Q: What sequence folds into this?
């Protein structure tokens, strides 16, 4: 259903990989939740939860009430209620896990106007739905050209048809507010369908389109990430990353969401570090922080005027010197602490092959010069020729006798 390779063909058979939407190449498994309660039965007298999670194009999910008490399972194609007409989607979750998802997304169960599931999709519903999906790519090309002709600073990123084909939603991205009233008139006159324009952010656009990140895996926003938190350059500074926009920006053009994943761990580790702006006062001179290593918990200081000579201190040593400076005392020099650190941290670890594995560089041995191999072959052949000549000479002597 999700991607082009797994979509259902006209005769009802799956196309492409023929895995019925479980191949994982595109949006088939986008934001999929594993139903770990599927093989467990409800206790006696308990009624199943009557809300169903339905997925539409590009991982868009909505929750519907099963008022008709239909027997639905994951993977069923259903016709759902829409603002006008009906929509077609696939059931992705049923039972008690739907209640957990609704609670996590803060969707109340008691709503005055709730959307309902009409029925399981018939073959006619599926045929109309597939026919509309086939039009989307061609319409997207024309829609972009119309926006360019009207000189609008916007980009049509995707088009989604409603299941009955009565409405189309145009998703677009823009840096500022766009007056697209004339554009809607052009779309309605050209496509002869109800039009809805919906603006999405650059991160939402990347999540809808999908792709492979610099880490070699699918984008987090298109697979499992649902909340887009703001990412600032301070997250990169705390992690001591180079502020290179080409490396820190994702496919959406914004800062990568993964910069926030380990930020809390770095902030906790930095609590034991003194501020880099605090100077260490010694009898030999004033020392300034040059560099920090969060993983090892050490810092490098240099005297003012002697910037080439760095002294390594642990965070405990630096904090002890700062405390003594606050009390009005000066340490003699940083060399004493640096010598102690070098004596304690200068440990060399020898790794041994305890498993009996082969060397990883066994295939990296140089092949050598081919001329040398030819010489070796010729040298090996010479003694053989000499022995043949000796045997022939002995035979000739015997025949002469």
A:
């Amino acid at each position: 259903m999700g991607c082009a390779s797994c979509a259902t063909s006209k005769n009802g058979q799956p196309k492409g990989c023929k895995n019925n939407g479980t191949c994982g190449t595109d949006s088939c498994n986008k934001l999929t939740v594993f139903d770990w309660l599927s093989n467990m039965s409800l206790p006696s007298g308990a009624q199943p939860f009557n809300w169903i999670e339905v997925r539409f194009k590009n991982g868009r999910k909505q929750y519907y009430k099963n008022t008709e008490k239909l027997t639905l399972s994951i993977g069923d194609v259903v016709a759902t209620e829409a603002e006008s007409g009906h929509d077609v989607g696939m059931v992705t979750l049923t039972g008690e896990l739907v209640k957990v998802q609704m609670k996590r997304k803060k969707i109340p169960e008691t709503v005055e106007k709730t959307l309902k599931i009409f029925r399981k999709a018939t073959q006619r519903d599926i045929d109309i739905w597939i026919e509309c999906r086939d039009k989307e790519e061609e319409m997207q090309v024309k829609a972009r050209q119309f926006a360019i002709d009207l000189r609008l600073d916007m980009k049509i990123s995707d088009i989604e048809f409603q299941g009955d084909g009565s409405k189309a939603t145009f998703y677009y991205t823009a840096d500022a507010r766009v007056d697209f009233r004339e554009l809607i008139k052009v779309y309605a006159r050209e496509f002869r369908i109800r039009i809805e324009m919906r603006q999405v952010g650059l991160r939402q656009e990347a999540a809808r389109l999908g792709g492979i990140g610099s880490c070699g895996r699918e984008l987090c926003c298109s697979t499992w990430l649902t909340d887009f938190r703001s990412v600032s350059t301070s997250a990169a500074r705390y992690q001591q990353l180079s502020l290179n926009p080409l490396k820190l920006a994702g496919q959406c053009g914004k800062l990568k969401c993964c910069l926030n994943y380990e930020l809390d761990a770095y902030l906790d580790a930095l609590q034991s570090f003194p501020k880099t702006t605090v100077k260490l006062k010694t009898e030999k001179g004033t020392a300034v922080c040059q560099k920090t290593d969060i993983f090892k918990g050490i810092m490098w200081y240099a005297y003012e005027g002697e910037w080439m000579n760095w002294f390594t201190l642990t965070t405990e040593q630096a904090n002890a010197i700062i405390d003594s400076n606050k009390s009005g005392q000066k340490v003699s020099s940083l060399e004493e602490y640096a010598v102690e650190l070098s004596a304690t941290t200068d440990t060399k670890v020898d790794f041994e092959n305890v498993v009996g594995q082969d060397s990883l560089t066994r295939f990296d041995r140089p092949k050598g010069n081919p001329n040398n191999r030819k010489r070796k072959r010729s040298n090996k052949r010479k003694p053989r020729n000499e022995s043949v000549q000796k045997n022939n000479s002995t035979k000739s002597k015997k025949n002469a006798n």
User: Anything to note?
Assistant: DSSP finds eleven helices and twelve strands in the chain.
